[in-house]
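On clarity, I found the account of how folds are encoded harder to follow than it need be. What matters is that the chain and its backbone geometry are given together, residue for residue. I therefore recommend that a typical entry be quoted early in the introduction. An entry of this sort, consisting of the sequence and the corresponding backbone structure tokens, reads as follows:
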Amino acid sequence: MTSRFNTFSIAALLAVCTIVQPLPVRAAAYGEVSVLAQVPIPNGFPEGIAVRGNRFYVAGPATLGTAFNGKPSRVFEYDVASGALLRTLETQGEQVFGAEHANSCLSFDGAGRLYVLNNQLGTFRLDLATSVQAQYTPAYPDLKSCSILNRAPCSPTVPNLPALPNDLAFDDAGNLYVTDSLQATIWKVPPGGGRPQVWFQDSRLASPYVGVNGLRLSPDRSRLFFTVTFDFLGIGHVYSLPLVSKPKASDLREFRRYLAGGPDGIAFGASGRLYVVLALPGQSGISVLNPDGSEFARIGNPGLNLIKPFDSPANLAFDGLGNALVTNHAFATGLLLPNQFQVLKVFVNDTASPLAEPLVP
């Protein structure tokens, strides 16, 4: 009797154990895309994205048409795991609401302070523990086009266009590099902030629309990589320059050319591959480049779909879990389809090559 009871009990216990065993989790496929978060309107038009621990931050709106909207630019704080919106940080000091005002890209320093580019304010930084905003640079100078009557400092562009600070990255010494998309210029800001100085200029960085754009230091910190979204022939480029005090025009090296696509933001993975966001409608997605510049993979929209899941994405950052988080800028569709303002999660089985996050004054 006892033996039969024990046999029955063991069999029943095994059955229960079998029932409660969890089902295996399906591994994500390379390039699999899902929507992680929505970016609130009326701002929308998300541009910059940066990850810090279990939080990620998105800046916007990066668009024209903000002059009379009466809405400050913002930075949004999200939970990495769930995509839940945790906090909204309104930009202080955009006094001229009758002028364009926009936040573009983001970067962290070693103390965890967040640096934000703004076309009116220049660069400001946020203490995320207190939400206090402090000025890091003044507004980026409006350089007049170079001519016989107007010499340096000037801009190698025709026509004369205002400053448009777009992306930023620190080096290990604390210098901050900033692309200026309308003035064919890369600025350099000394450690601790202050007035930006011209680091590099060249007409090959110019464009009738958006020229020099995303930038990142190479993993070995020897070169600065950056994109030109469209040149005057509509061709996109990834270029690099040596990280020296004053590079020359002859130092400029083309790493990759895009006959279509519109390269925007970039980021290096721990794999050594360079992830290039392609913003042009119809070509939207991510181009993954090997260290020799050849294309390892192209992640885009399925079939003939022009706006899902990628809708003119702008920038990306890694979440530390094998995913790239990508801002859907949706510049062509966002006014009519504001739900397209999103942050996408793309499985790439890679993590970030460590960014320079110096301790600056």
Notes: The first helix runs from residue 2 to 20. The CA atoms of residues 112 and 169 lie 14 Å apart.
